[in-house]
Design brief:
Strand order of the largest sheet: 1-8-3-6
Distance between the termini: 23 Å
Strand content: 35-45%
Radius of gyration: 13 Å
Order of helices and strands: HEEEEEEHEEHH
Number of strands: 8
Shape: globular
Oligomer: single chain
Length: 110
């Protein structure tokens, strides 16, 4: 399952800040930050968090706009799954869809 999931995405090594989501806009991808930092901007306030964590998961699961603007910090490593490629992979494999939803739920519970 892991290989199938990784085939649908791309590994990103940030050399400069990379915008992942914009508050109020539908994200074009689901992200998993494996290591490094993320800046989260919401309602005009900013916080920094460290991976591992998913970004864009609420928008992905609920089909709503992003609840915050986020940017990957330089030096961070992440996996980016474009929405069409990930949706296609999950339609082809219900087991993969269930596994990804479980990982997202586990991340949200932290």
């Amino acid at each position: 399952l892991f290989r199938r999931l990784m085939r649908a995405g791309e590994v990103i090594h940030a050399e400069a800040p990379i915008e992942m989501t914009q508050e109020g806009e539908a994200p074009d991808a689901l992200w998993f930050v494996a290591s490094g930092g993320v800046r989260i901007d919401k309602f005009g306030s900013a916080v920094n968090v460290s991976g591992p964590c998913f970004i864009g998961e609420i928008a992905w699961l609920q089909g709503v706009p992003a609840t915050a603007g986020t940017a990957l910090d330089p030096g961070a490593v992440a996996v980016r799954w474009p929405r069409p490629a990930l949706a296609r992979a999950l339609r082809r494999s219900p087991r993969l869809a269930t596994a990804l939803e479980a990982l997202i739920a586990q991340d949200m519970a932290r």
